[in-house]
Structures are given as C-alpha cells and as structure tokens.
Amino acid sequence: MDKLDYLLLSELLKDARMPFSTIAKKIGVSPQTIISHYERMKKKGVIARCILSIDPSKLGYQGKVFLMITNSPSHSKSATLESLRKIENVIVITEIIGSFDILAIALVTDLNSIIKLVSAVKGLDSVQQVEVSLVEETDLPVTPNFAKVYSKRSYELATT
Q1: Does residue 17 share a domain with residue 70?
Q2: Cα–Cα distance measured from residue 20 to residue 122, given in angstroms and rounded to the nearest whole number
Q3: For a pLDDT cut of 70, what percent of the chain falls above it?
Q4: Most exposed among 36, 71, 93, 99, judged by the fewest C-beta atoms under 10 Å?
C-alpha cells in the first residue's frame, strides 16, 4: 500500500458514502486515480466489503448476549463453530484464548429469546460449558470510535 491508499482509507473511514470526486479534491488527485486505487485495494482484500450499519434497537432488539463457551474435549472446535453458525440471532463467532474456547455474540429481544438461545447452545454435544453476559446496548458491529481509530491510523501511515 502507498500513501494515497492510506489517505483514501482515512477519508472513507470518516464517511464511506463520500463521493470519489470529493475525496480526489481533498487529496489532490483525479477521481480516476481514486477509483483505480479503490479497485486495487478491493482486489487485494484490503477493502473486504462495504456493509450497511444499522441500529438493531430499531428492529426490536433489546441487547446482546455474550456467550463464553468451553468446548468439549471430545469434540472439535470446528464442529462447535459450525453448529453455532446455525443458531438464530448469533452474529459473531470467534475462537478466543483464555478461560474459554469460543466467544459468540447474539442479539436478543427479551428474556424468552435469551432462554431459547442459551438452551440451544447448551444443547450442542460439542459444548461443555457456557457462561453468559448480557449487555443492554445493541451497537454493532463496533462503536463509532472504530472509524476514528482506523482513520487516524491510516492518516498516520500516509504521513510518516
């Protein structure tokens, strides 16, 4: 990646809907240069995808549940990960290092949805133990500070 790539990322992280022509004016290059750098970063996987960020509370979700899962020693983690992908409202699944093997995050609407979710996870043969934490906030996938942090870092990389 070069300086222009980092500057482009910095601008897109501030406002992903900013027109390429506006970014080009800010950086001092042509819109076609911005487009070619953008397409190159997409092709290389630097820009993985463009997603829509919504407020889950507007869809009736009341919070999110963090499920800290200990995998059964007699089953593979990949089996647990695959089974978790099939459970409704689970939106994040990742292996972790520490007291637990897997972290899953799910959106919940009410107490019944929490009970149903935890029962489904505990019912998996590959799960030995589950600990649950409930967070009332529904912000996803990250806080608004996420874009600021990455934008700042991209700008720093472009100017050093």
Answers
A1: no
A2: 48
A3: 94
A4: 99
